[in-house]
Amino acid sequence: xxxxxxxxxxxxxxxxxxxxxxxxxxxxxxxxxxxxxxxxxxxxxxxxxxxxxxxxxxxxxxxxxxxxxxxxxxxxxxxxxxxxxxxxxxxxxxxxxxxxxxxxxxxxxxxxxxxxxxxxxxxxxxxxxxxxxxxxxxxxxxxxxxxxxxxxxxxxxxxxxxxxxxxxxxxxxxxxxxxxxxxxxxxxxxxxxxxxxxxxxxxxxxxxxxxxxxxxxxxxxxxxxxxxxxxxxxxxxxxxxxxxxxxxxxxxxxxxxxxxxxxxxxxxxxxxxxxxxxxxxxxxxxxxxxxxxxxxxxxxxxxxxxxxxxxxxxxxxxxxxxxxxxxxxxxxxxxxxx
Length: 338
Description:
The chain is α/β, with parallel strands linked by helices. It has two domains: 2-131 and 308-337, Quinone Oxidoreductase, Chain A, domain 1; 147-281, 3-Layer(aba) Sandwich (Rossmann fold). It is 29% helix and 23% strand. It contains ten helices and 15 strands. It has helices at 38-45, 94-97, 137-155, 171-182, 194-202, 216-223, 239-248, 269-274, 287-299, 317-326; strands at 2-8, 11-16, 26-36, 60-68, 81-84, 121-125, 129-131, 163-167, 186-191, 207-210, 231-234, 254-257, 278-281, 310-312, 334-337. α7 (239-248) links the parallel β11 and β12. α3 packs across α4 (171-182) and α3 crosses α9 (287-299). The N and C termini lie close together (11 Å). Keywords: Oxidoreductase. InterPro entries: ADH-like_C, ADH-like_N, GroES-like_sf, NAD(P)-bd_dom_sf, Zn_alcohol_dh.
């Protein structure tokens, strides 16, 4: 079968791989669409420390069931449209014992610690397969990337009395914007790209700020009547926005960090302590986040195609990845159609 392989940093190619070996509890999926994630871009750039090469990327999956193993429940049938929870969980570590499976100490995400879904077929345990005939093939590929932002809002305990700032309006930030609006919060979207900010508005952001063109601090003070936002979601993965999160969040506020900054970030501890901040990380997503995203996509009046920058064939994927690496801030989501 055909597969897309990141052979070494900067080298993407189409390769032939053997068909997946199925276990008794596995489901064989025929891939329809797979999205390129920011972690795939990091792998391409040689900046992902969790990856060993060569690696088949991809964990944002839209597929159809091709075959089921002997121990798969009868509810899984050939021809059903599905997406996949791409994480593993050991069930024994401290995170798993608290049912925070997303933060499993030994997690292996498809396309990162193990080969992913950028191939014609993939076999996965039936427990990781989510069926939904109401969603389109494209919507199914958007479920996983949106769950990450949904999970961050859940971690931030966002309610309808909160004002939430989202730093970084890419795919992850978009999920955070949507979830915060669903919870009734006032949402301020911050980015340096006007196209992404326009999309943020369409997704429900109440205010948008281009921090390259406007004074972020003054804008936030004006919007929040001098208090600052109750919650800041850091989805940009930039030392500048990490520091801005501490500086701009309100006293007794919450900061939720999703993005991986490429370099170390130095903080002045005064505001951290003086404001008595809650600062936490947010990793992957839980089953409830997948359920929430699927419910949203079923009922939303927003055209999900605004989130997709381009759709390419497997043969076009190497060029698409190179172009993305040269202008990462301009791309929301690249889908590969098999």
